[in-house]
Automatic annotation (TrEMBL):
Protein name: AzlC family ABC transporter permease
InterPro entries assigned: Brnchd-chn_aa_trnsp_permease
Nuclease is among the record's keywords: no
Keywords from the UniProt entry: Cell membrane, Membrane, Transmembrane, Transmembrane helix, Transport
Length: 244
């Protein structure tokens, strides 16, 4: 049963929408550039233009797309591709848990749509603005003002990348752009000893597991790297506790 009071708070709030658009505006160029790189990588990995367009419209997750592309190119089983995408996108489970207290009262179809359109930066900016889950007028409009421009910027960049990548000769080597983009995104995220250890372990496992069939070395590297980072973080926390 819907709550009339909450429905009133969820009505379109122009001021909150404009405020969210202004807050998210500085990130849109980077999102579009990231989408362009993924678009190029999709067609350079062997997908046709219609396949790449379908993927970018249905799968709004750049890191998972880049992780799945080499598996698709090598003909890996659907289960391996699916499991790899799930592991790479585990952070969205955390995002969903953080947003749920704010919007649990909405119909499930609306929550499903909001979840599909939500991205990392949009969720971070929303939680920065609304750390408290208490009902508040304009909260839903603020989220929409972040996620819709974010999704649009991604799709524009990705679609341009798909068509640009389909016209550029293979000898230009643009297929490597996806790897370079991942490295550029990863470096700023390596903050702290646990993250650094996780990256180093994942890299070593990926190299050691290069010969595994269906690119399974990538999936094993992600899992082992995450476990290594969690282990190091636990050890660091315990050591700090002893010295307090």
């Amino acid at each position: 049963m819907t709550n009339p009071a909450l429905n009133t708070l969820d009505r379109h709030h122009p001021q909150a929408w404009r405020e969210a658009v202004r807050a998210g505006m500085p990130t849109l160029f980077g999102i579009a550039a990231w989408g362009l790189v993924v678009g190029v990588a999709m067609v350079k990995s062997g997908l046709s233009v219609p396949q790449a367009l379908a993927m970018t419209l249905l799968v709004f997750a750049g890191s998972a797309q880049l992780a799945a592309l080499p598996l698709i190119a090598t003909g890996a089983p659907i289960s391996v591709i699916f499991l790899t995408a799930v592991v790479v996108n585990l952070r969205f489970v955390i995002f969903a848990a953080l947003l749920a207290p704010h919007f649990a009262h909405l119909p499930w179809r609306q929550r499903l749509m909001l979840g599909y359109v939500s991205g990392d930066l949009a969720v971070a900016l929303f939680l920065q603005k609304y750390p408290d889950a208490a009902p508040q007028a304009g909260k839903l409009s603020y989220l929409k003002g972040l996620i819709y421009p974010n999704w649009s910027a991604w799709q524009v960049g990705s679609i341009i990348g798909i068509f640009v990548g389909s016209t550029v000769p293979p000898e230009w080597g643009l297929g490597f752009a996806g790897t370079l983009a991942i490295v550029c995104v990863m470096i700023p995220l390596v903050a702290g000893v646990p993250a650094l250890c996780g990256v180093l372990v994942a890299g070593a496992v990926a190299v050691a597991g290069f010969g595994l069939p269906y690119k399974l070395g990538l999936l094993v590297a992600v899992v082992v790297g995450m476990l290594a980072a969690m282990l190091v973080e636990s050890c660091v926390t315990q050591l700090r506790g002893r010295h307090v």
